[in-house]
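Notes from hallway chat w/ T.B., transcribed later so I don't forget. T.B. wanted the structure written out for a chain they're using in a teaching module, and asked if we could keep both sequence and structure tokens in one place. Agreed to drop them here.
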Amino acid sequence: MKRELSKIKSPLFKEIRGRGLFVGVELKNELPVNGSDFAKILCGEGLLTKSTHDYTIRLAPPLVITSEEVKQAVEIVAEGTHKLEQMVANMK
């Protein structure tokens, strides 16, 4: 999952880190949005995540997740990232 999420290139991302299926996506601290904003966007797209430490979202899928479900989750994060980028652009 981390490898696939790392393919999403966004100027909003500070770091993508994790081990196994447990992954964190950290946003840059200087943004006018935070992890909670990102988690709400992803929830609206059908992916539940947890906002932690203000600028990070946590993905912790079940161990029985299929590769197709991982692919679907990564696609949702990519779409959510575009929406978050639009939100930031509208705030300028």
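Follow-up for T.B.: The beta strands are 13-19, 22-27, 50-52, 56-59. Might be a good example for the class.
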